Amino acid sequence: xxxxxxxxxxxxxxxxxxxxxxxxxxxxxxxxxxxxxxxxxxxxxxxxxxxxxxxxxxxxxxxxxxxxxxxxxxxxxxxxxxxxxxxxxxxxxxxxxxxxxxxxxxxxxxxxxxxxxxxxxxxxxxxxxxxxxxxxxxxxxxxxxxxxxxxxxxxxxxxxxxxxxxxxxxxxxxxxxxxxxxxxxxxxxxxxxxxxxxxxxxxxxxxxxxxxxxxxxxxxxxxxxxxxxxxxxxxxxxxxxxxxxxxxxxxxxxxxxxxxxxxxxxxxxxxxxxxxxxxxxxxxxxxxxxxxxxxxxxxxxxxxxxxxxxxxxxxxxxxxxxxxxxxxxxxxxxxxxxxxxxxxxxxxxxxxxxxxxxxxxxxxxxxxxxxxxxxxxxxxxxxxxxxxxxxxxxxxxxxxxxxxxxxxxxxxxxxxxxxxxxxxxxxxxxxxxxxxxxxxxxxxxxxxxxxxxxxxxxxxxxxxxxxxxxxxxxxxxxxxxxxxxxxxxxxxxxxxxxxxxxxxxxxxxxxxxxxxxxxxxxxxxxxxxxxxxxxxxxxxxxxxxxxxxxxxxxxxxxxxxxxxxxxxxxxxxxxxxxxxxxxxxxxxxxxxxxxxxxxxxxxxxxxxxxxxxxxxxxxxxxxxxxxxxxxxxxxxxxxxxxxxxxxxxxxxxxxxxxxxxxxxxx
Length: 666
Prior knowledge:
Blueprint: H1 2-13, H2 35-40, H3 46-59, H4 66-82, H5 86-102, H6 106-122, H7 126-143, H8 146-162, H9 166-180, H10 186-202, H11 206-223, H12 229-242, H13 246-259, H14 263-266, H15 268-284, H16 291-305, H17 308-324, H18 328-344, H19 348-361, H20 366-495, H21 502-530, H22 539-550, E1 556-561, H23 572-593, E2 597-605, E3 608-615, H24 630-640, E4 644-649, E5 657-664
Parallel strand pairs: 1-2
Antiparallel strand pairs: 2-3, 3-5, 4-5
Helix pairs in contact: 1-3, 3-4, 4-5, 4-6, 5-6, 6-7, 7-8, 7-20, 8-9, 8-10, 9-10, 10-11, 10-12, 11-12, 12-13, 12-15, 13-15, 15-16, 15-17, 16-17, 17-18, 17-19, 18-19, 19-20, 20-21, 22-23, 23-24
């Protein structure tokens, strides 16, 4: 049987976490199926439940899935808390927390703190309760979980109210409302305003208390939790009672009692509270009809439910009733019973109330009761003050830790930003330095290209100067030598013209005419040679010399210029790069084309210079040419002058390659 139950338990554990509520405090559980449902749907007693949990706890570490193991540890720990197995609860709670830390499950860590707070609350250890609520709340706050953070703040506020830290409770409740209101959690908002109502009732600000109770009712209307109306109306009745508006108090107690006709069975604890409160208000108004029966009924219910705080207050009311009836013996007996029970349960409030009643009733022992009252009251005040200080210290230390963490995070962020800034500055300086070096190199290259071009031009000018000098020399020789001799010959022939025979005349005239023709031709040649000057040296001449120098090989080069190209208006940088591209293209034709002829054509169309370089070689595949730097250099040079280059080659099985350059002149 036990094995069967154990397997059943383990199966359920794989499903999810548990769900449960406390009348005054809320825990961390959600609404998923849990062991609560299994346990409530069976006739299992506490011993059987403990056996199941022990078996499950022993088997939990065989689960391989860390996430599942973590959920199950949290569930088992919570169930130990539910059956009041303190020892196993502490062990399993610590194990669950350690495993949550191991798997970095912040929600699981917060849940273990929440359960610890719940445990200490059950034993009225309010300082420890507050401490662990605070630790859980900070985790949820850091996770941005406003819902659970708000619920925990409300729990902390209730604890603060219980130890009469009303200011702290008001602040915590207000902070909880701030988080919960945007979430429209009407149930928790009702509880928050209900707590504010109780706080201001204790502070004797009764109108403010009623205002908060009414706000709570508005949220209760929206929540649809109709079973809670009787509770809030009872609270409002107590406020009216404390403010001595007894008629209104009775109306609210009656309203609370009549709202649920089955309240005696559905919520016997609340029924006994309302019954006792209503009877006490009637006692205060001197209406004692039927109230003795009501007091006794309420007391019997509370004893059956073992609600010890309710028993003590109920017995005090009976003591006051019997004193009103002048039965001082019975009154004193009830007061003494209250004093003893309050002492055993550490219920200081009712203990002081019983002492106050006795010192006013038992005249013989009034001094002793008075001294004890003063001593206990002072001790209580010191304890409450110490607890409030402890709560404040917990908040201060937590906030100090958060502030220190924030300060360290800010410092880390500041250091990171400074470091990032320095790295960025170094990178920028490197980029600027590198760019300057590149610009300097580019400038040096441009200067070198310009110097190369100027050297080519100077060399060509010197060549032309030498050629012009030679032309002038030839011109002088023709003019001064040959023409002079021919002139002498013509004179001699003229002298021979004295011969009168017709044949001689014809011959002489014929020679003279031939000599004149030669003279005219020489004179014309002399004039043409003498017209050549340096002003005619231009870029076309440089290119012609480049092509002419290549015709010495097996390949015959042709060059063709359109008359519309005015090279003097074209930028030298463009001419330098064109010269280098042609030089590279001619070199490639010699090395690779196996051509016999090649032509270079220049044309100008719409402010664009068009250059075509064509050969009748074997061709190649430009896209498959990976080695060498010739083609990349040609592309780079054309790109520098913002031009375009295209290569049309028919491949190895056909002939011919055409390189076309298009260069904008504007």
